Amino acid sequence: MAKAVDAAKLPDKLRVRPGARIVLREPAARATHGWRKADAERALERNRHELGALQYRMYAGGHHALLVVLQAMDTAGKDSTIRHVMTAFNPQGCTVHAFKAPNDLERQYDYLWRAHRCVPPRGSIAVFNRSHYEDVLVVRVSQLAPRAVWQRRYRHINEFERLLADCDTRVVKIFLHVSKAEQKRRLEERLEDPKKHWKWDAADLDKRRQWRDYMQAYQAVLTRCSTAHAPWYAVPADRKWFRNFAVSQILLNELRALAPKLPKVELDPDSYRIF
Ligand code: AMP
Ligand code: MG
Known about the structure:
The chain is 44% helix and 12% strand. The chain has 275 residues and is an alpha/beta fold. A five-stranded parallel sheet has the order 2-3-1-4-5, with helices on both faces. The longest helix has 25 residues, at 37-61.
């Protein structure tokens, strides 16, 4: 087996270079970059501790915010990633927002309105389970808007994320790349296991039928919207243990780069006596 890529260098391998033409190939979804399950599970545990410590400083410092966007085909594991990785964070400083088809109120505004309302305040983390990217994914594939309408959205989105970056919000976007073959297995599991029946959504099959169109739409997103100020990462998601570890390592590198510091406080502890 190939030597494992250094944990700290892994995110660099998964980050989409701005302007790079991305082609999503099935085998890439199974990649593990030389990692083995037991090592990845241990590394995830270590990463969770450090993520918690970094979040503590970010919260206390109140300078930066972190927005994590999760996008993927059904069954790739957005919810499960949130459960395994984001639980590293204190709920007090982290919110999760799931974006479904827009409701009546949301439809009365521009499509970025509902996303902008949910961005994290300084010191906090927000996780988007689906996001404003659906407006160039499902909207494009299912032709919910004319081509001319969704075409200009890539530019809006890049500019929206630039605004957030300029205002101290780091935007980190993660595509969980599951293969069509692995999705088949996971959908079959949902049918076989009564405890998973609640997850069954016949509409997932329509999306599966449109797989090629979705891959094209995702390729366009990764190619056009990965920027230095708001990068996309493509994470192989066929192996759950690698997916969880890789996401934790991406967030860890990103938070380390923000280098959050405890606020400087002028306090002379000797001047107080607790009665
Ligand atoms: P789930 O994440 O499985 O609960 O499904 C949420 C559904 O909402 C998915 O089928 C998305 O494609 C859909 N959705 C999310 N955002 C939009 C949007 N802007 N327009 C239309 N459908 C959307
Ligand atoms: Mg679903």
